[in-house]
Automatic annotation (TrEMBL):
GO terms for biological process: glutamyl-tRNA aminoacylation. A motif ('HIGH' region) lies at residues 11-21. GO terms for molecular function: ATP binding; glutamate-tRNA ligase activity; tRNA binding; zinc ion binding. It comes from Paenibacillus silvestris. GO terms for cellular component: cytosol. This is Glutamate--tRNA ligase. Pfam families: Anticodon_2, tRNA-synt_1c. Its main location: cytoplasm. Catalyzes the attachment of glutamate to tRNA(Glu) in a two-step reaction: glutamate is first activated by ATP to form Glu-AMP and then transferred to the acceptor end of tRNA(Glu). The keyword Protein biosynthesis applies.
Length: 484
């Protein structure tokens, strides 16, 4: 490609950034950065029935959070704006007129009822049909009659017969369609607003887009678009159609599927790290070739290539994403993890909105204790509930331990140590435990498991000294008294 690469993500702003859109945008972004090209974000808002004004900001927020900075869009402008279609209506009108004049398009006066009838007749004959083309050759008199009835025409593109429309897709390789299977399609509605297929080619051309990356669901639109490019004498861009993303059951993902988290906003709310989500999404269809799976954005930019994007569907593996996010969380600075977790603890009512220095240190220790274990920040609430709940839930294993003979001796001795302890910090606690060992003669598992089971209700868990400090002297003493 001699021209600098120009790619675009062109969402219809109907809501939040979906994982499928995010993948398209990420692939766009990576290629643009890799090749010193431009990444354009354009809003396709001509379908006013599905349009949601907040969808524009929602989409941009999702991209922003993922760190996919764009070069041109509604907020920052650019040389080929405006970047939302409803502000480009006059541009489409010019091209629509051109198609009408050259005979590549024609007005169609068929009403919904007419079309319904046509479809029913086709069905009765066992035909699979597009539009019959019945308005292709209206006489001026017929047109005048329709106009007199007050009918407003939509505009249809005239699909030439007997054409094979082929193109080399960057992912799917050679793709071919027969024009005979495509009925004349509507490119502008009676109110003059263009349909997706028409607006998209005008925009991609005017915005000098030379590579169109999008989901496979648009593959069947591509021959229609190629025919229009040709009719307007415009060069056809390259295409890359990305295979579907399947859910964990290897079924087509529906927006209602709850087995996976589908919107980027939800990941942000649950306290995932954007770099983990980016890393994970990059692997939905792309494979780097080696064994390595962890990539920073910079590494992705250096390595990403459509040649290694698969034609087969990608399977969205939520467990893998959680594994990956945990790996990123483990490596993140504790202060960052604290910032992510604190709002969740506040929301659960576990901590006050304002913390003094001691409170801050306590929360930091609490989160630090769980940093290795959490898959995403919201999990801190569940992971740390033993430090907040008044009532202790003792699981089966812990209950079995607590029935052992030595336990009362150990706990009584520890209670004594706790009650007379002057300091109950992480540093001071080991000496208390050491003293219990001396006084009772129990050590190792018999000592630690008893205390852990009694105070956390579990046999396994994070660092015991830190756990005891986090519970605090009062809670520890109360729980021991309770049990004894
Ligand atoms: N607005 C279309 C969509 O959201 C974009 C399709 C395209 O990229 O051409 O699916």
């Amino acid at each position: 490609m001699n021209q600098p690469l120009r790619v675009r993500y062109a969402p219809s702003p109907t809501g939040h950034l979906h994982i499928g859109g995010a993948r398209t945008a990420l692939f766009d972004y990576l290629l643009a950065r890799r090749h010193g090209g431009a990444f354009v974000v354009r809003f396709e808002d001509t379908d006013q029935t599905r349009h949601k004004e907040s969808g524009i900001e929602d989409q941009l927020n999702g991209l922003r959070w993922l760190g996919l900075e764009w070069d041109e869009s509604v907020d920052i402008g650019g040389p080929y704006g405006p970047y939302r279609q409803m502000e480009r209506l006059d541009i489409y009108q010019t091209h629509l007129n051109q198609l009408l004049q050259s005979g590549h398009a024609y007005p169609c006066y068929c009403s919904e009822a007419d079309l319904e009838q046509e479809r029913a007749e086709q069905e009765a004959r066992g035909e699979m049909g597009g539009y019959s083309g019945k308005c292709r050759h209206l006489t001026p008199e017929q047109i005048a009659a329709f106009e007199a009835e007050g009918r407003k025409p939509s505009t249809r593109f005239l699909v030439p017969a007997d054409r094979i429309i082929g193109f080399e897709d960057k992912v799917r390789e050679h793709v071919e369609f027969e024009s005979n299977g495509i009925g004349d399609f509507i490119i502008a509605r009676p109110d003059g607003i263009p349909t997706y297929n028409f607006a998209v080619i005008v925009d991609d051309h005017m915005m000098k887009i030379n590579l169109v990356i999008r989901g496979e669901e648009h593959l069947s639109n591509t021959p229609r678009q190629i025919l229009m490019y040709e009719a307007l004498g415009m060069p056809v861009p390259e295409f890359a159609h990305l295979a579907l993303i399947l859910n964990q059951d290897r079924k087509k993902m529906s927006k209602r599927d709850e087995s996976i988290i589908q919107f980027i906003e939800q990941y942000r709310e649950l306290g995932y790290l954007p770099e983990a989500v980016v890393n994970f999404i990059a692997l939905l269809g792309w494979s780097p070739g080696g064994e390595e799976e962890m990539f920073t954005k910079e590494e992705l930019i250096a390595q990403f290539d459509l040649d290694r994007v698969s034609k087969s569907p990608a399977v969205f593996d939520m467990d893998k994403l959680n594994w990956m996010n945990n790996a990123y969380l483990k490596k993140a600075p504790l202060s960052r993890v604290v910032d992510l977790c604190v709002p969740h603890l506040q929301k659960a009512g576990y901590i006050e909105p304002q913390l003094d220095e001691a409170g801050q240190a306590w929360v930091t220790a609490l989160i630090g204790l769980n940093q290795e274990r959490m898959r995403f920040a919201a999990e801190i609430v569940e992971l740390s509930s033993i430090f907040f709940k008044e009532e202790l839930v003792i699981d089966e294993e812990a209950a079995a331990i607590l029935k052992e003979e030595h336990v009362p001796v150990v706990l009584t001795s520890f209670l004594g140590q706790v009650e007379q302890a002057e300091s109950f910090t992480v540093e001071a606690i080991p000496a208390l435990l050491k003293q219990v060992q001396k006084d009772t003669g129990y050590k190792g598992k018999q000592l630690f498991m008893s205390i852990r089971s009694a105070l956390t209700g579990q046999v396994h868990g994070p660092d015991l000294n830190v756990s005891l400090y986090l519970l605090g002297k009062e809670k520890v003493a109360a729980r021991l008294q309770n049990l004894l």
